[in-house]
Specification:
Layout lengths: L2 H54 L6 E6 L4 E4 L4 E8 L4 E9 L2 E6 L4 E5 L11 E11 L3 E4 L3 E6 L6 E5 L2 E4 L4 E9 L6 E7 L3 E4 L2 E2 L5 E8 L7 E8 L7 E7 L1
Parallel strand pairs: 2-9, 11-18
Antiparallel strand pairs: 1-3, 3-6, 4-5, 4-7, 7-8, 7-9, 10-12, 12-16, 13-15, 13-17, 14-16, 17-18
């Protein structure tokens, strides 16, 4: 072989060997550093797209259920309308639950159990014996609202007999907690009331004697710890014989 041809072939062999070494080195470097680079890239991608993806998903809405009055309930017209609701949220904080009657705002409660009493003289209750009501939960951080389903209820005049009426006639009290209710005297007079509790233990009332002179007698009903499931009856007996007693049933939840 001529010398020049030998030198050219030798140079080509060196170049092939060098190229092979460089390729091997590059492959080895990628193999050694690839997972780390992949993890870094994946983390960077997640950091870049994570908030956008979170913000892009709809937040779960708060929920509220109107628990009283029940659909189609008929309430005595001399009684305040007790509106109660249960509310929850997975995002943010509940600020309050608002209540509406016939489309009018009638009050709100910022603490569970959420409840208000709408007096029978309230403008929202005037002009008709049929009414609608719903509850609205309001949250903050983030700000959001949600409405319960609308409930229909009605009003009826009190019985013609002179008697005491429990408002409401069905009372629910949380175990270890308390609530209020009212006995209304529809007697043509304003007698005092003697209050007694019968049934399961754990339910008590304050006061046990309400003085005469008022048509409405507001009392506090309490449930002792450990009394969940108890059912009792409160009887309000006038201190004169001209008026029939009234009662209300208490359930401890």
């Amino acid at each position: 072989m001529p010398q020049s041809s030998h030198h050219c072939e030798t140079r080509r062999s060196w170049r092939r060997a060098a190229a092979g070494a460089v390729a091997a080195l590059v492959l080895a470097t990628v193999a050694a550093t690839g997972p780390a680079h992949a993890a870094t890239a994946e983390a960077a991608a997640a950091a870049a797209t994570g908030p956008a993806a979170t913000n892009g998903r709809p937040r779960p809405a708060p929920q509220v259920t109107l628990t009283s009055p029940g659909e189609g309930a008929i309430l005595v017209s001399v009684c305040a309308v007790r509106l109660t609701a249960e509310a929850s949220t997975r995002v943010g904080t509940i600020d309050r639950v608002e209540f509406y009657v016939n489309g009018q705002f009638v009050g709100s409660d910022a603490h569970a159990p959420y409840a208000i009493d709408v007096p029978p003289s309230h403008p929202a209750l005037r002009g008709t014996a049929r009414h609608t009501t719903f509850a609205r939960v309001v949250t903050v951080s983030p700000a959001a609202t949600a409405d319960s389903r609308t409930v229909n209820f009605g009003h009826a005049p009190p019985p013609p007999a002179a008697m005491v009426i429990g408002c409401p006639s069905q009372v629910q009290v949380p175990e270890g907690g308390s609530t209020t209710m009212t006995f209304v005297s529809v007697c043509g007079s304003t007698p005092g009331l003697i209050l007694t509790v019968t049934g399961d233990p754990g339910v008590s009332v304050t006061p046990t004697v309400s003085p005469p002179g008022n048509q409405e007698h507001r009392i506090t009903v309490s449930a002792a710890p450990g009394s969940a499931g108890a059912v009792a009856r409160i009887t309000a007996t006038p201190d004169t014989g001209s008026c029939m007693p009234g009662s209300a049933v208490v359930t401890v939840s």
